[in-house]
Amino acid sequence: MPLNKIGRLPLEWVRVFEAAGRTGSFTAAASEIGLTQAAVSQRIKNLEQLVGVSLFSRQPRGVILTVDGEAWLPYVTQALQALNRSADELFGKAPDRIVISASASVAQMWIVPRLAALENKPKFQISMTTMIIEPDFAKANASIEIRYIRESRPEGRATRLYRESLVPLAAPTLLEGGIPWWKLPRIAVSGPRPGWQEWAVQTGVAATSVPIFRFDNYVSAHAAAKAGLGVVLGSLPLSGQDLESGNLVRLSDKVLTPDAGYWMTANEDMLTRKNWEEIVDMLCEPTQQL
Q1: What's the rounded Cα separation, in Å, for the pair 171 and 157?
Q2: In terms of CATH architecture, what is 3-91?
Q3: Which pLDDT value is given to residue 252?
Q4: What is the pTM of this model?
Q5: Boundaries of every domain in the chain
Q6: What is the reported pLDDT for 43?
Q7: Which of 12, 228, 247, 271 could bridge 171 with an S-S bond, Cβ 3.0-4.6 Å?
């Protein structure tokens, strides 16, 4: 296509091409956009004449993208999505309610203390939901999800909530008998976060005995440690208040620092960039704000 034609691509024709290519049907594209099937066909024909190539192959049972059409479609889709996002961020109405889905431990021990410490309360409602199963934006209907991720940084808008650090923690009363902490009962947590075996391997400390207590969530394991039931491999970021108050004490200078950790990800269709930046400032450790 000559360069002088690039600036003359009618946006409506491009939108029709994207809808038809994505749905694989002129009829479906017409229903989505609000045109007749004939109008969609005519706009596609006009676009093909303008760019100088066939974008669809017409067949008795419908249409399929040509090689050129298939190559162009991803660029068009990304461009239209970027255009829609920019319009929402600049001119769209900010949501009155932002839904944040997180585990109980993160909600209770990280998010709530930070919300309580805010000098200026947000202008939108923050609705917290507890993440129980593997997250899925389409099902959870959450604006933001906070999930434990072992892989590299997630795609899209994402930032690490905090850098995880795990150390043995226990209630002071558990230590009154003078028994070395590594001989005390262990508390384990099921799930993705590293446990006592990883602690032994990465710190060089001898492998520990089989935990006497095991919980399926960190909140319960943390509470059990505060109650004096045993030693938990505790999260320093989540345990700050209890360490400061003396409810728990740190038992070792060695620290397990896994690459995995909690990441905050946004559903960009439900959140403006300004809202995202506000939430990041509220909840994320400053050094993790990417």
Answers
A1: 39
A2: Orthogonal Bundle (1.10)
A3: 92
A4: 0.65
A5: 3-91, 97-163+260-288, 166-250
A6: 93
A7: 228
Which homologous superfamily is 97-163+260-288 in? Answer: Periplasmic binding protein-like II (3.40.190.10)
The amino acid present at 178, given as its one-letter code, is G
- Residue that has been written with the tokens 């930070």 in this structure: 114
Q: Count of alpha carbons within 13 Å of 64, Cβ hemisphere only?
A: 5
The confidence score (pLDDT) of residue 95 equals 63
Question: CATH homologous superfamily for 166-250?
Answer: Periplasmic binding protein-like II (3.40.190.10)
In the block, tokens 């508390």 appear at: 187
The pairs formed by 42-48 with CB atoms below 8 angstroms and a separation of 24 or more are: 43/12, 43/13, 43/16, 43/17, 44/13, 44/16, 44/17, 44/20, 46/10, 46/13, 47/9, 47/10, 47/13, 47/14, 47/16, 47/17
d(CA 210, CA 188): 9
Largest CA distance in the chain: 87
187 pLDDT above the threshold of 50: yes
CA 250, CA 258: separation in Å to the nearest integer?
18
Q: Which two tokens stand for residue 119?
A: 């000098």
Fold agreement between 97-163+260-288 and 166-250: yes
Judge contact between 147 and 238, C-beta under 8 A. no
